[in-house]
Amino acid sequence: MKKFYFLCIFLLFSFNSLLAQKEARHWFFGGFSGLDFSSGIPVADTNGSLFTLEGCATISGADGNLLFYTNGVTVWNRNHLIMPTGTPLFGDPSSSQSAIIVPKPGDVNIYYIFTIDWAGSNKGLNYYTVDMTLNGGLGDVLGVNNVPTATNILESPTTEKITAVQVFDEDNFWVITLKSGRFYVFKVDANGINTVPVLGNSGFVGWRDARGYLKVSPDGTKLASANMTKGAFIYDFNSATGVISNERELNVSDRFSYGIEFSPNGKKLYISTGDALFNIEKLYQFKLDIPNPTAVNLNTTRVELHSYFNSRSALQLGPDGKIYRAMNERNSLGVINNPDEDGAASNYQHGVVDLGDKISKQGLPQFIQSFFSALIQARDLCLGDVTNFSIRSNEPILSIVWDFGDGSQTSTQLNPSHTYTLAGDYTIVVEVTTEDGIEIVTQTITISNLPSVTTPVTLQQCDDDIDGISIFNLREAEVLLTNDNSVSVYTYHLSQANADANTAVITNPSVFSNATASQLFVRVENEFRCYRIAELNLQVSTTAIPSNFILPFRECDTDAVDNDDTNGVTRFDFSSATQDILALFPPNQNLSVSYYENTADALAEENALDPSNYRNENSPFSQQIVVRVDSQNNNACLGLGFHISLKVDPLPEFTVTDPQYICLNQLPNRVTLQAEDPEGNYTYEWRDSAGVLLSSSSTASEFTAITLGDYFVTAITTNNCTREKKITVVNSNIATVETVTIVDDSDNNTITIEVSGVGDYEFSLDDVNGSYQDQNHFENVFAGIHTVYIRDKNGCGLVSEDVSVIGFPRFFTPNGDGFNDTWQVLGVGFQPTSKILIFDRFGKILARLDASSAGWDGTYRGKQMPSSDYWFRVELEDRILRRGHFSLIRR
């Protein structure tokens, strides 16, 4: 069985050989720093013109000669001069990965510069075209003033992260950036840049901070993202499709992560961290080649290699297979000499790479990650496959000798093939002769076992309508196909040819009808991408449970489930049905019974119900439950159908008046309690507060209470559903008037009446049947005699109190029209012995009035007095003396 891919291979020989890809030989970064790897070791190059705090990129030709470099804003040619239109680009020297350079496939003269702005701006991801045929072969950036337009803005805004890698089995490239939980993956091919990113790649949390590096492993199978806010994340990357998946968080001990890099064979990941408070930067290694690489398992492999006082630093794989570490404001770099080795064996050395009189900043130049992939490429690495080999070389190969590492014959073919008979690791040794000499390249490959598979297997499903057609959940076959823990992927196909080619995959295997096919083929693939094909047969059988077999379950509605006892939703326990259903089958058959809300779920065996604790919230008041019976020996379906009936009975509906009152001023001292407005024929039970039954009858909807306290009435339906309500009986009485306070002869006459009693009282002035108020105080009361009514709200009656509000009219008009014909003190009728005298302006007494008389008619000794002001003197019974004047007006 074949699976074509590049294996991540352990590298024993220096990358900086005659055969190595040379595009990454020259580096320019930091404060005018540079390195030249042409001799096989990094040598300081102090000729660079680039200055950057963080991101930068450099590119050399296939011959290893420098072409140009950039900090994302300015582009310098190989003579370290700015290209004629080499600035301004829309990157930023303070962006983590401000630029990356990608050659155009199929054209050795065209390169694309992708720039990333810093996170605080909105220029985002842009691209520019460099044509190396311009400016006398020194190259120049195409375009006018490099102003971004719709043709070179790919996404805005973005994070400060960007990386690139070769497309699997193609000469094309993926360019990847990240923002707001989505990866944007763009393809670069011979036609240029596809400005529409790969669909999907969204819903990720690993973008907590715009800052920090993004890297793909050299073999294109993994992707890692660093975040300065906190944490780092690793993903699976499909270099054939550009799809990213399987997000896992790596533990960096509550520190931010900044630099990130894979080892050449992709089996180790290195992360540099920092601490904003103490500026302690740590260097960690994680092992990736472990079984079941979950986040938990990956984090157990973490090893701390080094720590020192520093802000943050980039990590970058070099053409010599070593990983270099930036050292901010220092004239040297750190280096991981053996990054494919475990822990301390990776041999980190601090500050040993000399930069001359120049200094490093926080960043290092980045490259297409596949520049650093293994020299030897091997395909078809599953046991039994014919393994095909090739070697990458920038030099013409004059002769070659392959040793496949298993003691078999050698080969002198340029691209040989070989079949291994046992799984395991094999060291490949290749002797390559070019015009420059002979080199020995040594790499280790792994031949992986095929998954262990049982074939054929059969899924048996019940027929729910005797037509021989049913729905299958094909995934149920997986437990029958294999118990091999290395298996990671199952795909289902209608033909073996499709299964071998992994094409025409059944897209929804959990709902497959045997009307389409009764024989399928399953591709079972393990974590090493090795696979076998298994045959899957689908059989339909008639259910063995009689169609008229129904087990009823009834419950009363309750508010214990959802605080609502009227919606027909409650909790059921129908687990006792299992034994009744199993009793339909012969004993000792090792059967299982499961329950579902619908036939589709039952057929797919998805969303099984808990019969001991089920809520019928999707079907209030009544519901039918599907029963499924399976053989645990072969997963065969033996019974299927609606065989459980759930019914929710409503609770009694009635009302009560609460509280109720016994009026102390009325005989007999008792009150009738009643269950009012019942909606059914119920039985009633009356109990006191101690729970003692007082009355029980199908007609006892009333009960006479003679004592105070709480009474409980329970209504019971014919289905024994109950509802209880409480009525509290309390005393009440009419009011007793205690005091009346009157403020009169004022601009705002008021009456305030104080009462006592056990009732709840309300008050009305002069209107026994009118509106009542809770306040015992009345304002703006006219002078005169008034009646205050005090009513018990609990129905125990009312009392009244007559009050007098004294007032003195300011004028009167004795013209016989019936209005204001006399002058009298208002409200004085309750004080009949009051003395009232009227004077003219000279003090002469004109009249003596009786409190109960109609008043002075404006005459003296039968003679009408003229219009004028007159004076009064009033001495009330309560000894209050009042004086004043009024006007007599004749019209």
Characterization of the model:
The protein is mainly β and 891 residues long. It has seven domains: 21-372, 7 Propeller (Methylamine Dehydrogenase, Chain H), CATH 2.130.10.10; 376-432; 457-542, Immunoglobulin-like, CATH 2.60.40; 551-649, no CATH class; 660-732, Immunoglobulins (Immunoglobulin-like), CATH 2.60.40; 736-805, Immunoglobulins (Immunoglobulin-like); 811-888, Immunoglobulin-like (Sandwich). The strands form 19 sheets. Strands 8, 9, 10, 11 and 12 form a five-stranded antiparallel β-sheet that branches. A five-stranded mixed β-sheet has the order 47-53-52-49-50, with no helix packed on it. Strands 60-66-65-61-62 form a five-stranded mixed β-sheet, with no helix packed on it. A hairpin with a 5-residue loop joins strand 65 (868-875) and strand 66 (881-888). The longest helix has 6 residues, at 496-501. It is elongated and about 155 Å long. The relative contact order is 0.06. The model is unreliable at 1-19 and 146-151 (pLDDT under 50).
CATH architecture of the largest domain: 7 Propeller
CATH topology of the largest domain: Methylamine Dehydrogenase, Chain H
Please give the CATH class of the largest domain: Mainly Beta
Q: CATH superfamily of the largest domain, please?
A: YVTN repeat-like/Quinoprotein amine dehydrogenase
- Tell me the Rg in angstroms: 49 Å
Note poorly predicted spans: 1-19, 146-151
Question: Major sheet: size, sense and barrel closure?
Answer: 5 strands, antiparallel
Beta strands, count: 66
How many separate structural domains? 7
- What's the number of helices? 5
Write down the overall geometry.
Answer: elongated
**Strand portion, in percent?**
35-45%
